[in-house]
């Protein structure tokens, strides 16, 4: 049987899912990514094939979106096993690639576990989370077609990548401290002051001291400052030429948001979702800090950490930060270090960067709940009422 699956089925662990399902049902054949979706040939008993067809839809990965699933009968070839084969880029490029996904609970546990080899590693990911749209250079979605191709997997990562029982089985952005991207902290002139863990510590200290840090995020640069410090926020406004537009605020946790804003059950669900959007909430009270962040506005744009790097930084600070786009008002967002140093050196006092290239910048979703229903506000950027960080396309 030949099956063609189209939709958002790359970068979501779909091939590993197909592999495990076929192996469980003792079916033989192969699966590949293609520029149009996922193709597979599979053979076995009629009952097993029928069950495979049903479960392909009912048991699919949570992030996968199947738009169509077409099948046709073929003569049996006599495959001896089921395997994931090398992808093909033949034909028109029509498959969908999901946006970057906030870290899953499993990856968060790993970066907070001193016994784990990815302890405090800011580029931890798996098939359930991590960069997607921001790193892809071409279809199909394979490591060789992403900006991760410059990083050669170490033996441990390669073992996970090849192990069908591991949640990093064919996770294309897989990395660890031994073989993956690394952090570096630069001063405003581009001089390296610290690397790896020390770079994160330096950035934390700069923000804590009221200075402005430009952070190279998943999909572009952000400008960060202590949200509790009105003078620091006003300095950011002056340097960025952002007179009144509200800034969005990133909080360390949901618990930190509640004293500042009213949070309904639906708004909470949005905040902790894998998309990690900015959610516009009603302020509980107006404080001097919030007046500097969103002057004259009864609402506040709020978000939670959206990458392992953000989680580690906010955990070190343990207070909310303004996280706004890395640009002057109405200019494009910076996505590489050279560009950022040239365009942002008059705004930022320091730069927390890394060596994983960003292929394209991606924007935040900005959502609000009205009358019990979720509505999309305008995305951050020129003409928007909100100046949120830029992380993902939605």
What does this structure look like?
The protein is an alpha+beta fold and 394 residues long. It has 11 helices and 17 strands. The strands form 2 sheets. Strands 6, 7, 8, 9, 10, 11, 12, 13, 14, 15, 16 and 17 form a 12-stranded mixed β-sheet that branches. A 5-stranded mixed β-sheet has the order 4-1-3-2-5, covered by helices on one side. α5 packs across α10 (308-317). The longest helix has 13 residues, at 46-58. The radius of gyration is 22 Å and the shape is globular.
Task: Write a short abstract of this structure.
The chain has 394 residues and is an alpha+beta fold.
Overview features:
five-stranded mixed beta sheet, alpha+beta, 11 helices, single chain
Give the overall silhouette: globular
Gap from first CA to last CA: 35 Å
The count of helical stretches stands at 11
Order of helices and strands: EHEEHEEHHEEHEEHEHEHEHEHEHEEE
**Structural class, please?**
alpha+beta
Percentage of residues in helical conformation: 10-25%
β-strand number: 17
Major sheet attributes:
12 strands, mixed
Low-pLDDT segments: 379-394
| Mean of pLDDT | 91
- What value does the Rg take, in angstroms? 22 Å
Task: Please state roughly what percent of the residues sit in beta strands, choosing from under 5%, 5-15%, 15-25%, 25-35%, 35-45% or over 45%.
Answer: 15-25%
